[in-house]
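User: Hello, can you help with two protein structures?

Assistant: Certainly.
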Amino acid sequence: MTKKGQINEIFSRARFGTPAETYKIFYRDFEKIIEVTLPEFIKVSENFETIPISRIEKITKNNEVLFEKYRKENKNNEK
């Protein structure tokens, strides 16, 4: 499944299935990572219009990681 498809599936489940407040979205805002709940993210992103999916770094639910962006620089630093 593509990254966009995976994130859309998580958002769909979160918005229509389980309590949305249990989801945390970590997104890139210039050089820092911002952490917000899903309802806050929907407001800030103006219903997903102003923050593209490509800026989402991680999604968690009750501290379980559901999505995390793969970063090349992390792999290079692990040597």
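That covers the first. Now for the second protein you mentioned:
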Amino acid sequence: MSTEPLVDRIADPPAARTVRPGLVLGMLCFIYVLNFLDRQLLSILAKPIQDGLQISDGQLGMLTGFYFALFYCFIAIPVGWLADRTNRMRVLSIACALWSVATAACGMANNYAQLALARMAVGVGEAGGVPPSYAIISDYFPRERRGAAMAIFNLGPPLGSALGVAFGASLAAAFDWRIPFYVIGAVGVAAAVAVYILIPEPRRGGHDAGTGAATAPAAPGGFVATIARFFSNPLLLTAAIASGAANFITYGMSNFATLFLMREKGMQLGEVAIWYALVVGVCMSAGIYVSGQLIDRFGARSKAAYATIPAISLLLALPFFLGFVWAPHWPLALALLCGPMFLNSFFLSATVTFVQSEVHPSQRVISGALLLLVMNFIGLGLGPTYVGMVSDFFQPTHGAHALQTAFFALAPMYLIAALLFFELARRIKRAKRSQEKVCDELQVALDHSLRWRVPLRMLDPIGRWNDGKSASCGHARRNFAWRARR
């Protein structure tokens, strides 16, 4: 009888067929497009939904922010833990079917309470979408190509938003705001079936041979232990918090941008379907793609680039955002909005690639889920809620310009997020210096062991004694092997 652990046999079944990584990436990106389209459709159709159901800016902020994020963020943790131990493609396809059915249910809502319940169900389903995809991509692409692959995958949000604006607004203008929810829900169910049938589960860590993530011994895999290990790592925690601050800006702006342009800049729904869709689709997509190329280029030279690139992009985006909020008419506002749309999402591919490369291959889904927990609870959960509440607060004194004031109150988050990313860069550099010091000490210990023929024993990265063969410093380990042969 096989002694292989049951979890391993469930998690890594031999693939019955091979599929080109490009095809897998394309299908995962399409699922992400649907994921984000379903998520953003309520924000895109905010004006007709507000008129139909009589809800305030504060209530809209709760629907698009806190209520959704509460389930999306926290359900992602057990789903990620399960996906790390079972078939990730099946988890993804089931989740896609669930959030698509819930999206259709949003179109059936007749009051605020029903719409809130449907949004929570969308959050439950979408919790199983992105974390498994991050891990699947990491197992289909080698480390030196992951930045570009993650950037292509992360085109899902801009493409989803752009398609949602174009088709959602057009359908709503021609028929009713409920129709887009039904159509997109049906497409999502069909996509879930296609993924379940066509894409096989990849072997975990197949492209990580010789890297620190693959060669380091897997840490104890308990649910609570995995979570504690993530939050006790200062690099991962800082990356998650910095990304949350950047996401606070992204969701705070994007979830109210359509309503802001229509209410305060004079755009009509038909104009939104064309011009705003173009700005979102072109500028956001270009920004995410360029960020992936920059990360692959500069990240290979210095790991700190995963933090400095997002920090600089946020500082560059701030004056464009202030101009967008100030502009008196929508054509100028849209032109200035191109800056934030291009620069705001530089952090996404950088942070995801950094976290996925820092953890063991068997813990990538749960690590991605924990990153999204912090990133989206701060950004998606609090960003729109903050903007909506500030708008309601200023409504009695600023009237029609209350939302503009709320956007101005969002601007300081650019500086806060940039400072957090600069702090992450500082910690990455400090960790690198510490690792180099450990490697130097290990080299001295190896020299001593070989000279005096004393068995070498040391603590490995997770605190267990070993004989030096699993030491974390690859250079010293290779030097030890070469000298031992001589």
